[in-house]
């Protein structure tokens, strides 16, 4: 580092320190926040929070502090909401003022060219993009997704039969191929290098998104330093370029096929002709496609893994799921579960909901939203700019919320609300930022898990027990845990050969 850069960095930090002290003073006088977890000056709790898998850490704090506690991550004040009651009161009922996002100069500004919808403030741009996403992903579009989910879940069973030790890659391919088929009109195959790179860039984004990882996200004022002094910028820029290249490769491929007349009709072919796109920059357009690919792939893959871990570690419920599956589809592998069976397979719908609740490791400490004006609640006074999150792990594993919370127990959701996928857990988030792809995600998991449970056994491997409390979300293309996958019987194997083999041959 040159002396000029060093001097400027020191001045920058001194400025931050001064502003921080001033703000602490003003805060103390005017506002009242829930109990604060002790931290260090300036950086607060940034060095305590684990870089990944923060759920157990935040759950322990909830056990100590009760329904709400406050953490400081640099200049940002986070209030963790640790019960469904307070999440409902604030993030649901007062959603209009609790739905924005705090600034993320690194992950949103540099790494995403200000264009990732999930990190956008609650404004007109977000509303426009949310509308576009909703048009593709809402429950009204079920019939568009169903045939792709049918084909891809047959391919999934085929992959499990052929390469059972690659079950996690098969899950990733499955989830990715459904969304690729709808958005780009193309399938993805096992070990597709483009898919592997998509997951790599997504994991880079998620790693960088954790609180405390990037100094400029902790102290957004540092974004005001001249660009040449921002030592984090070149790294962010490199990730941005790599990410955009992954998205662009897909778009280029589609446009090439459109030009030579071989492209299938799909969301992408319609979307690039719309008025909305004409008003977007190239980067904004690429991030619409990129967000769909990323958010659509990773989440279903992770949830399928969770349910498999639940089947291997709490096998009692699997026999009850099988009893219903066998009653509907035959107890001698007569046929695969179909969409038309859904009404009769309410136990499977309960399994899917339990899979979302059990170990919510897609957003272990929720997703941060920012309060847009001062607010009061039960004796507290929150300033505008406070960040709020639902403490997902703490709520999901609280015996006050769920009986025997550590157990995978689908019966807890056999309550007449099986088809209401959003009710009874917070896996898709609360309020106005609730996951816009929840219906697609839920359907992805439903048909895949119905078929996998009907056809395969999942067992722990002796000597390699699954630690269900620390299943990683970010796996760098490796298995999140070890599990033995075998077909249920010779008859089930024959069923897969008969009904699923063709799926691996279909090309578009
Ligand atoms: C399968 C299970 C899925 C889970 C558990 C899940 C979970 C989540 C969560 C926790 C959020 C943040 C909510 C918040 O900030 O309060 C979110 C946002 C989002 N999800 Fe999902 N998701 C899933 C599937 C999908 C799919 C299939 C898509 C698209 C194809 C998708 C697209 C999005 C988008 C675009 C957002 C950002 C919404 C916004 O900020 O307005 N998700 N999701």
From TrEMBL:
PROSITE patterns given in the database record: CYTOCHROME_P450
Key words, A-Z: Coiled coil, Heme, Iron, Membrane, Metal-binding, Monooxygenase, Oxidoreductase, Transmembrane, Transmembrane helix
UniProt superkingdom: Eukaryota
Residues at which heme binds: 435
Keyword Glycosyltransferase assigned: no
Residue stretches in coiled coil: 237-264
Membrane-spanning ranges: 6-22
Single GO MF annotation: monooxygenase activity
SUPFAM superfamilies: Cytochrome P450 (SSF48264)
Cofactor field: heme
Family: Belongs to the cytochrome P450 family.
Protein name per the record: Probable cytochrome P450
Gene source species: Cephalotrichum gorgonifer
């Amino acid at each position: 580092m040159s002396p000029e850069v060093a001097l400027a960095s020191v001045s920058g930090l001194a400025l931050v320190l001064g502003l921080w002290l001033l703000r602490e003073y003003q805060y103390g006088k005017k506002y009242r926040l829930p109990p604060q977890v002790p931290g260090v000056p300036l950086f607060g709790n940034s060095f305590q929070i684990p870089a990944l898998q923060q759920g157990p850490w935040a759950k322990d704090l909830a056990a100590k502090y009760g329904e709400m506690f406050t953490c400081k991550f640099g200049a940002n004040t986070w209030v963790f909401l640790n019960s469904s009651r307070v999440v409902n009161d604030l993030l649901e009922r007062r959603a209009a003022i609790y739905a924005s996002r705090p600034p993320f100069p690194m992950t949103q500004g540099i790494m995403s060219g200000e264009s990732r919808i999930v990190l956008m403030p609650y404004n007109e741009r977000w509303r426009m993009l949310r509308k576009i996403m909703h048009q593709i992903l809402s429950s009204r579009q079920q019939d568009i997704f169903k045939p792709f989910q049918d084909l891809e879940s047959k391919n999934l069973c085929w992959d499990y039969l052929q390469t059972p030790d690659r079950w996690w890659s098969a899950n990733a391919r499955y989830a990715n191929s459904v969304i690729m088929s709808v958005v780009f009109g193309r399938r993805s195959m096992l070990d597709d290098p483009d898919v592997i790179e998509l997951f790599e860039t997504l994991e880079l984004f998620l790693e960088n998104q954790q609180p405390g990882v990037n100094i400029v996200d902790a102290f957004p004022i540092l974004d005001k330093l001249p660009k040449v002094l921002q030592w984090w910028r070149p790294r962010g820029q490199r990730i941005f370029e790599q990410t955009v290249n992954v998205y662009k490769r897909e778009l280029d491929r589609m446009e090439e096929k459109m030009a030579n007349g071989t492209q299938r009709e799909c969301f992408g072919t319609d979307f690039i002709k719309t008025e909305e796109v004409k008003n977007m920059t190239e980067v904004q357009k690429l991030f619409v496609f990129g967000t769909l690919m990323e958010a659509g792939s990773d989440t279903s893959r992770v949830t399928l893994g969770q349910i498999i871990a639940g089947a291997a570690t709490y096998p009692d419920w699997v026999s009850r799921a099988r009893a219903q599956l066998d009653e509907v589809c035959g107890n001698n592998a007569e046929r695969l579960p179909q969409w038309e069976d859904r009404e009769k397979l309410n136990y499977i719908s309960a399994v899917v909901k339990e899979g979302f609740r059990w170990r919510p490791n897609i957003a272990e400490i929720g997703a941060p939203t920012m309060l847009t004006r001062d607010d009061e609640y039960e004796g507290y006074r929150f300033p505008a700019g406070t960040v709020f999150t639902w403490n997902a792990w703490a709520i999901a594993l609280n015996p006050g919320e769920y009986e025997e919370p550590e157990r995978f127990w689908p019966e807890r959701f056999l309550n007449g609300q099986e088809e209401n996928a959003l009710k009874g857990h917070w896996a898709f988030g609360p309020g106005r930022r609730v996951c816009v792809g929840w219906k697609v995600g839920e359907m992805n998991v439903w048909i895949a898990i119905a078929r996998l449970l009907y056809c395969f056994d999942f067992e722990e491997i002796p000597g390699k027990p699954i630690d269900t409390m620390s299943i990683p979300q970010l796996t760098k293309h490796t298995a999140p845990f070890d599990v033995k996958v075998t077909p249920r019987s010779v008859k089930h194997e024959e069923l897969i050969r008969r009904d699923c083999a063709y799926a691996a041959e279909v090309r578009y």
